[in-house]
């Protein structure tokens, strides 16, 4: 990190925020490059689930003639599970920094306070994007095909990035609030499980009444249905707006809570 005189003015301009965040993000990314098993582990579980569902359970699931192959149907849910798996490492790394006194050292330097958290968030985004690329590559080898246009691919990318940011800021809350390492990462387990009670793997019409109601009214279903429609080159309808409302709402609330906790921690 660039040396800065202790006691220099703490006020951070917009340029200072971006430069500080870039330096701190580079620091976090170097840690990941030294330990690439983080990205590999994030991708292994979704790939294992793809293999299990496509080659073991796929033949027993009736999607109807208009739904195409099962790998095409279930890939959106697998991508969301990939993201939910990856954010656990964000909470873990943030917790270790808090416990190791790194944040206290940063407070003696005239750097942007929020830049410290954004560095962890951007590091999470980069590592998860790499994991998503690996999972999509394996899906293509398994027979995934899409007629999506460039615009549709950009729409899918936008939803996945927004989903990653929303969940990563939730991970920041866990990393700042946890008392143990296990507690920092365990919060992601319900998020990984959520796609299983949605339209990610089977149509919601096949579920019992109360489960169907929950599946159709939780955020994952609208996100999955939007990504699936974009991959298939079909109209997304109102699902995209429902998905965007969920994602933006979660992101704004999680960011506000994270910054509030962070200010209390460093005050």
TrEMBL record:
The record's subcellular location field reads: Cell membrane; Membrane
Which ranges does the record mark as transmembrane?
39-61, 73-95, 116-144, 150-174, 186-204, 240-262
Q: Where is the ABC transmembrane type-2 domain?
A: 37-265
Q: Which GO terms describe its molecular function?
A: ABC-type transporter activity
Keyword flag Chaperone = no
One biological process term in Gene Ontology? response to antibiotic
UniProt membrane topology term: Multi-pass membrane protein
List, alphabetically, the Pfam families matched.
ABC2_membrane
Identify the domain of life.
Bacteria
Q: Which family does it belong to?
A: Belongs to the ABC-2 integral membrane protein family.
This chain's protein is named: Transport permease protein
Which organism's genome codes for this protein? Microbacterium kyungheense
